[in-house]
Amino acid sequence: RLELPEKVRQIIEQIQKHGFEAYAVGGCVRDSLLGRTPDDWDITTSAKPQEVKAIFPRTIDTGIEHGTVTVMMGKEGFEVTTYRIDGAYLDGRHPESVEFSSNLVEDLKRRDFTINAMAYNEQQGLVDVFEGIEDMQRKVIRCVGNPKERFGEDALRMMRAIRFSAQLGFEIEEETYRAVEELAPTLEKVSMERIQVELVKTLLSAHPDYVRFYQETGLFCDVLPQADVILSGKFKNPTLKLLTHAKNTSVLRYAALFYHAGPDTAKEALKRLKLDNYTVNTVSKLLLYTQKSIEENEPAVREATYTYGKEMMPLIFAHQHALLDTTEELVGIGMTTKRRHLETVERMYEDIIKRGDCISIKDLDITGNDLMEYGLTGTQIGKTLKDLLHIVLENPKLNEKETLVAMIEHLDL
Ligand code: ATP
Ligand code: MG
């Protein structure tokens, strides 16, 4: 017996009252059976989209041509999709056609993996026609039907197999795995956006080191050569270890994946993945700044905070800790001195932020306008502010207007 959320129970019941079948299906059934909290609850039904819309007062046409209607329950929406038979995915992306069906089993058959092909409602209980439960107990990811055919219909499923295996700690069943190896080159047909979604889910999973399977099966070969290279040579093991020590954010996990490739290659790879500018820039900056060490005194830490940016500092520290953890694990020796240095710098940074020390031109107790009043012009102003900032980074006590004004004439402009 599974515990359905009240709203899901109500939707299913309403549909049944109108003479149709309805079940919770897919990821939510899998996750509930595994004792994990589902992100969302999908419902599958024998009712056609127009019939679903007639039953509920508030619906949204989410993907009506694919049979999906979102049913609003208060502020929450639930996707209700008509039983469907998918045509072939000729382009490896979208089914050429979808055909509605009145048979639940047909709908389950089109789903990717046995553990994702189970349906549940309170009246019928669990509907599991492809041994999903057995595979769950065996901890395997197995295609519904013939793996080569299924990957031929939609090449993204190969990425998904590895992603689910990383999230759940399951192994990929042998025939399914061999089909991934064989059809890996066809991943090329899939858009980078969809590939990136699966990759980041893998990186953010409990087993980020399972990215190795993208390389080992050949999935990265043409699609992401930068990751293929880094995961195949002498950097493979250090990269996988670093991934397991990296904090669970996409920036830090991408930084771990491309650490040994360096900032430029990382940037190239992340752009190729069509990641947003923030991620591309932050990861490559992080890898660049990590190559420089910060001295263990407050002026140096303030200088670094100014140069790298306040928001980069915690990322640099987290990345450095992961690097030390990795070295400790690989070498088997405690990195005590380096760790103590890092922690000291970190503590200094925190004090600097807490005290509100001046760490940028806008924190100075003097402005460009003030300098104009003292007769400075154009480029002189910019240079003077910078010079004053470096003096103040050295000694924050000097950040007082009168003191700063008194210093202007001693500056070499
Ligand atoms: P999560 O939401 O945690 O990523 P999920 O299993 O819910 O995992 P979704 O992408 O939300 O995955 O898809 C919901 C369900 O739709 C899946 O469980 C599966 O049954 C089916 N499905 C999704 N994508 C595909 C696909 N490319 N091929 C076949 N079936 C799919
Ligand atoms: Mg889902």
From TrEMBL:
Residues annotated as domain CCA-adding enzyme C-terminal: 251-407
Top-tier EC class: transferase
Keywords: Magnesium, Metal-binding, Nucleotide-binding, Nucleotidyltransferase, RNA-binding, Transferase, tRNA processing
Enzyme Commission number(s) of this protein: 2.7.7.72
Needed co-factor(s): Mg(2+)
GO molecular function: CCA tRNA nucleotidyltransferase activity
Database matches in InterPro entries: Bact_CCA-adding_enz_type3_sf, CCA-adding_enz_C, NT_sf, PolA_pol_head_dom, PolyA_RNA-bd
Domain tRNA nucleotidyltransferase/poly(A) polymerase RNA and SrmB- binding: 169-228
Nuclease is among the record's keywords: no
Residue ranges constituting the Poly A polymerase head domain according to the UniProt record: 22-142
Origin superkingdom: Bacteria
Signal peptide stretch: none
Family: Belongs to the tRNA nucleotidyltransferase/poly(A) polymerase family.
Name of this protein: CCA tRNA nucleotidyltransferase
Organism whose genome encodes this protein: Lachnospira intestinalis
